[in-house]
């Protein structure tokens, strides 16, 4: 049985609006998100210069977007956990730590890709 609610173009338009609200909230409330967006502003144009093939450029760009996606997921986890209360709980801490680890892994992946493409280009 289909889920009740909006369908078709109205659902798509509303979903886009919710996504824009999510970006705005991340920008307003998450310093790490702002830092990573500023990093993306630098790295995305640099990817066109550093990459020499389409695949290299796609990998460079994808690694930047993966960091943004990981930060959005981490911020969502933190917001959901923080909504439940201020008391410390081992599972809440574990969830937040795992979200942070997701961001770290994405940054490591970005570094590996950028270093690999840089070495291939210049050495």
TrEMBL record:
GO terms for biological process: phosphatidic acid biosynthetic process. Mn(2+), Zn(2+), Cd(2+) and Co(2+) support activity to lesser extents. Gene3D superfamilies: 1.10.287.3610. Keywords: ATP-binding, Cell inner membrane, Cell membrane, Kinase, Lipid biosynthesis, Lipid metabolism, Magnesium, Membrane, Metal-binding, Nucleotide-binding, Phospholipid biosynthesis, Phospholipid metabolism, Transferase, Transmembrane, Transmembrane helix. Its main location: membrane. A divalent metal cation binds at residues 30, 78. Substrate binds at residues 11, 32-36, 57, 71, 100. Its EC number is 2.7.1.107. It is a multi-pass membrane protein. It catalyses: a 1,2-diacyl-sn-glycerol + ATP = a 1,2-diacyl-sn-glycero-3-phosphate + ADP + H(+). One of its GO terms (cellular component) is plasma membrane. It holds the Pfam family DAGK_prokar. ATP binds at residues 11, 18, 30, 78, 87-89, 96-97. The active site is at residue 71. GO terms for molecular function: ATP binding; ATP-dependent diacylglycerol kinase activity; metal ion binding. Its cofactor is Mg(2+). It is found in: Cell inner membrane. The chain crosses the membrane at residues 37-54, 101-122. Belongs to the bacterial diacylglycerol kinase family. Catalyzes the ATP-dependent phosphorylation of sn-l,2-diacylglycerol (DAG) to phosphatidic acid. Involved in the recycling of diacylglycerol produced as a by-product during membrane-derived oligosaccharide (MDO) biosynthesis. This is Diacylglycerol kinase. It comes from Marinimicrobium koreense.
């Amino acid at each position: 049985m289909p889920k009740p609610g909006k369908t078709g173009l109205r659902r798509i338009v509303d979903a886009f609006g919710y996504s824009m609200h999510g970006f705005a909230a991340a920008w307003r409330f998450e310093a790490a998100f702002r830092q990573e967006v500023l990093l993306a502003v630098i790295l995305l144009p640099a990817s066109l210069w550093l990459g020499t093939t389409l695949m290299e450029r796609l990998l460079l760009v994808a690694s930047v977007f993966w960091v943004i996606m990981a930060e959005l997921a981490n911020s969502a986890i933190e917001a959901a956990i923080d909504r439940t209360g201020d008391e410390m709980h081992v599972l809440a801490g574990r969830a937040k730590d795992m979200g942070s680890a997701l961001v770290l892994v994405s940054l490591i992946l970005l570094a590996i890709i950028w270093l690999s493409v840089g070495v291939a280009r210049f050495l």
